[in-house]
């Protein structure tokens, strides 16, 4: 009996390890953007498209990938996904244009979806319902979120050792290990979930059009100043037209990608909103990374090391939240812990945006962010899945992904970037207006700077010009700090607000309900 348990645990660990490379197909080079941009020498806009397109390709392919995955024998599927991943990943080393690089990265992202599903099915079949769903979701989230930061950290170090191509080689080694593990753990080549293939092709095309418009808004919105530009206005109007066309479409199809019947389950509606809310709170992390890279001048290795603080938080919160869910603790308790940690993350950073901020100032708030992520992500995935019949599993999954990943994280981050830029201009203008002869402190600083340049042998005109430039640079730094403080103060209030609502209306004073659908923790 003991030997059997040890063998079962060994098999389980091996099956989980198989999922890791597919979760991180495009994570390992996420800190190499400047090198890749320099390699191809493209414009910032073109490179931004290259960053977004693989993500949207993966999300768009998800419903079709899951359907295809159920039709093909598991061993064939995992071996094919691993081999194709190596092929597409290697192809990015030899392309000469950003278009082909983006094309093969998108194919790698698409194949990753198939690999995730192929590597998860044996776990679902072998250990569920033996496993409690809370444990299954918790372990998958721990592996996904934890490996994400480890791969980004390793990718940043590989880049510093050689260049961005080292991360590609590292990922290929991972996929080769997947092939070896598949030969060992996948004993039978069968398709246990195979059924009649039926797919909503028309609805899929409509969804791709919807994603294409969101992609355009994410990339072009900031440079075109959003609704002040006619093309942005047209794109927004087109979104509503696509939504209307889809609502007409679902009336004439039986197996829609997103069946409106799923919204008869209140937890799906509320869960989608919660996932959107979490995406908004989590999206401010791009602000911190941008501040580290663009304002403070941190290199990729320093940024990756700082973000390992998130991993510390995840290592504490995901096992704890999984244990609480398994022990059937009230949902309200876990939600309050998660929202509270996100609130502390934003509040601490609000007080730490000051001149002279250093790497050490980011560790504690990022630990709290990791804690919030670990409490809220597994819980939100379970809550939106609660009581949903298997027939509506895909509708539930795509509702959550669109709410959190597409609308909140991708589009929301682009909108937030514009809002910060506008706040920065506002504060810079306000600070510049204070540089008058009446402001003795500013005049004193200007004269001291001017005297330093005169001492270096510069002419009167040159010294004056450089002194004004130095003061202007200091003003820019102060303005961006004020802009970030504004954002994080507002976000801290947004994070703490759900806690007061939960306590005031006595919400979720019950444990998690029954969950039967497949956990796809993307």
UniProtKB/TrEMBL annotation:
Gene3D superfamilies xrefs: MFS general substrate transporter like domains (1.20.1250.20)
Main localization category: membrane
Keywords: Membrane, Transmembrane, Transmembrane helix, Transport
Pfam families cross-referenced by the UniProt entry: MFS_1 (PF07690)
Superkingdom of source: Bacteria
Transmembrane segments: 7-26, 46-65, 77-98, 104-125, 166-187, 199-218, 230-248, 268-288, 308-326, 333-354, 366-385, 397-420, 487-505
GO cellular component terms given for this protein: membrane
InterPro entries xrefs: MFS, MFS_trans_sf
Cellular localisation: Membrane
Membrane disposition: Multi-pass membrane protein
Annotated GO MF terms: transmembrane transporter activity
The name this protein goes by in its record: DHA2 family multidrug resistance protein
Lineage of the organism: Bacteria, Pseudomonadati, Bacteroidota, Flavobacteriia, Flavobacteriales
